[in-house]
Beta-galactosidase
Amino acid sequence: MSEFTVGESDFLLDGRPVRLLSGALHYFRVHEAQWRHRLAMLRAMGLNCVETYVPWNLHQPRPGTTRDVQAVGRFLDAVREAGLWAIVRPGPYICAEWENGGLPAWLTLELGTRARTGDKHFLTHVRTWFHHLLQEIAPRQIDRGGPVLMVQVENEYGSYGSDSGYLTELAGVLRAEGITVPLFTSDGPEDHMLSGGSLPGVLATVNFGSHAREAFETLRRHRRKGPLMCMEFWCGWFDHWAGKHVVRDPGEAAGALREILESGASVNLYMAHGGTSFGGWAGANRGGALQEGPLEPDVTSYDYDAPVDEQGRPTEKFWRFREVLSEYHHEPLPEPPPHPSPLGAPTQAVLTGWAPLGDVLEALGGEETVTPVPPAFEELGVTRGLVRYEVAVPGPRQPYPLRLRGLRDLAVVYVDGVRAGVLAEEEPELKEPVAGPARVQLWVESLGRVNYGPRLGEAKGVTGGILHERQYLHTVRARGLDLDAFDAGVDTVPFGAPPGPGAPGLYRGALTVHGAGDARLELPGWTRGFVWINGFGLGRYWSVGPQRSLYVPGPVLREGENELWVLELQETGPDRPAPRLLPV
């Protein structure tokens, strides 16, 4: 048993000063069979600690239902076995470029902007969730023989709100559920963020990517005493669909890391290893300085230009950071562990079945509802996936524009069974007017919920109504298809022979593997959708880039035949080949 405390200028382990050299690695973005390899990579880089968030929505998909909360405990056990300490950031909000910032969609539907405040209903849900979660964390604190040194209160709250009473309540919940190690907050190094997000008597840390001395000077204006720590040193960045792949020069990043350490501070690399937003859990941002602009969905890869890349390999940044971090160790650093073997040989899928989206919805979708106006995804219990809306245009009437108010995010529109266009929030009106009578079908897809800023928790679907000219179209039939429905398999889907190129729907096929190992899946000629191999959700693909393939962890594959499902939501190209699996 050991005691970890916060001194006047240092962190103290059993009364002796200690510097935390930490790196972020999200257990939920790494296949569990690869945790130990990635943790060993962090040790080899020169880190002595690992930090992770906990996404509430992943573990509580519906009210009163929890799902594998024990994964948190298993990860912390792996951390201890790897000889590392741990910092846990349980939220309830985490950002992390994760769907809805980790908050359950059913919760933000109920509470709206009352989430992340001292609202009694929100806190009741938090207490219930933390009661489950902290049973995995509390017994693994360092004063009980585990690796956990510190636990965070909320996350960058000063970037969002100013309800100090809420933070006080959260700290009280953590203590009441058995958290005895030091608590901390983390915020940007700006006065309004630190004043809004910090808590008296709780360690305050700062997040930044450069200019460490200026950041710590700002922190010292708010906290004269206490150890300095950059809780998020942004050594890379994330990508958006239809954007550019973001990279940071390794030498420049290593120089920024050196400046942090020369300031006498502890550090947490964000990210040390980013991993992948498997299962369609990637979030989204809003453009503009105030995060009120166009939606910018995050790609499936969370490589983050981190020192350990998405496949777990050391990059040039890894070696530059290792050189800097080695100066803060008395013993030589361990060598990186052998990298897991890549796929033995490329292989192309053989597509054996196909079902139109309507049949997939019938087999795996929720119950159909009939309401005067379009229900939101959240009302239909859809977190990640799509909703089919159907409405009639009365007639006879002349052609008028058809417009979707408050569309979030994409809609493939059919008029009398013929595809009429693809609409988006920024382009919500069909190019060709629609005459009545007509039957309109909208397949609306969420591209990821906002994970940061004032638009957090905004609803998905057709949130403002369907307009024909200036008249609302009422009596809307709606049915949702959540990606969780695929967890039980697709055997209930009535597959037929694959059609020619162009048809959206669910494709089923097989990949014959020789030499199972880490791979990437390419889908040239496919437009947008989701992929599963052996029932494991790899995430979203999209032809707009910049991501061009999906990472397939080696433990997902098996020798011989592997089952492939591709849910194409828009269309395939005229010359599209079958998906192919390549070595990383």
Remarks:
- The first helix runs from residue 35 to 45.
- DSSP finds eleven helices and 31 strands in the chain.
- The chain has a mean pLDDT of 97.
- The two ends are 42 Å apart (CA to CA).
